[in-house]
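Weekly modeling sync, notes
Attendees: S.R. (lead), two postdocs, one rotation student

Agenda item 3: backlog of single-chain predictions. S.R. asked that every request posted to the team notebook include the full sequence so nobody has to chase files. The rotation student volunteered to paste the first one in as an example of the format we agreed on. Action items at the bottom.

Example entry:
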Amino acid sequence: MQGKSASLDYFELKINGTNCCRASTEDGNIGDDKCRGARQLCPGLDGPSLRYALCCCFFWGSVMLRLLRLAALSGGLILSASASAQDIDAASYGYPLTNPFEATIATTPPDLRPQLPSDDDIDQADYSLNMRPERAFTLPDNFWAVKQLKYRLAEQDHPAPLIFLISGTGAPYASSINEYLKKLFYKAGYHVVQLSSPTSFDFITSASRYATPGVSKDDAEDLYRVMQGVRAQHPRLPVTEYYLSGYSLGALDAAFVSHLDETRRSFNFKRVLLLNPPVNLYTSISNLDKLVQTEVKGVNSSTTFYELVLNKLTRYFQQKGYIDLNDALLYDFQHSRQHLSNEQMAMIIGTSFRFSAADIAFTSDLINRRGLITPPKYPITESSSLTPFFKRALQCDFDCYMTEQVIPMWRARTDGGSLLQLIDQVSLYALKDYLQQSSKIAVMHNADDVILGPGDIGFLRSTFGDRLTLYPHGGHCGNLNYRVNSDAMLEFFRG
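Predicted structure, as returned to the notebook:
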């Protein structure tokens, strides 16, 4: 095969060590498919070129689904019992990734993760709640899959505590982080309920009253109704007590849900764990939005960022002689000669966040018929392509979404004032007194988390005291699956 896309004459695709497919690069067609799951995981395998297959299989299937990972608490270490925050010493911590971008993307090397059950060993199923029945008649036909809210429940075969897990920005209930946490807590003996983020496409469509996420109090009330619906749907599930956790934006949501429960008293959460929450929501989204503006060497009018990354991946797989999609792939890639630079990793993280922001802006605009992205009377059928509208939504970052959709809605409903007032109301600042006084709530964060801004760590220290555990490394949610951290998270919930 000639040209800059030259590759091996022939390659093998492995998924978790199993030979699934073999391909010839003469025509780029995939043949001898021995693994049905291969095409489900990598839709590019039916594509017209090897380069497209590599893009789908690695870049989207592996990088994007791993961008958001939970931060965690260190276990087995000697921690201070004073009222000051528990700062974990870098030398004794032992987490190997000191680059926050690399940790965010690659997470923990597989041999440093805990042993957890497989899905086949878990009694679990997906269920649906009809939270907004009126939208079955107002949403376009191609929204049929999300007109009811889905969630996942993993059940023990005996009376047990139940923990609700809230996903991060734009993430569905079955996000990779929630899946990891499910296995962790299920192994420890908990019933586990996985919930989508209020900013996810499915939640906005089927559970959000105003379909304009971003006002934390409103998002918490929507989540609370969903939690009550879950409990009502399983009246015979033997629950001994309730726990709550969330990661990234889901951690901020968990704080507001816990505060709401103090008056509603439906669950009386025994313990609540906030993993890598944004302190100032506006600061966090601004930090992530700025990553998309990173100047990347090698990107110009003739070479896009995605082509640059894809060329690196192609050379990496050339050197290996095969494609092996397993948990060690990203870590191994970052320790190869083709590793991504800080600027390239920042761009990947920022791009993932921009896609989430575009999804939120598009969905909110469409449901509310605001006409900012999709014309209000534009006929959308099951066969309509939404790509032109999503491309338009990609031009609107999170700040644009807040300015054009959230603030006008908030002002119309509450006679609200300035952007600064809204920021205070939707951030942890609004709950400072409650968080200071509530001994059942703890925070686990990373000192190098890219979503934190000036003063954020100081706020966490003064608010949570010794209920804050601060790790030196891990980026944004990169060290959740470090086995030392996982043990300590379980220890927190044991009390």
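Discussion: group reviewed the output briefly. Residues 110-287+429-494 form a domain with the Rossmann fold fold (CATH 3.40.50.1820).
Action items: rotation student to repeat for the remaining queue; S.R. to check formatting next week.
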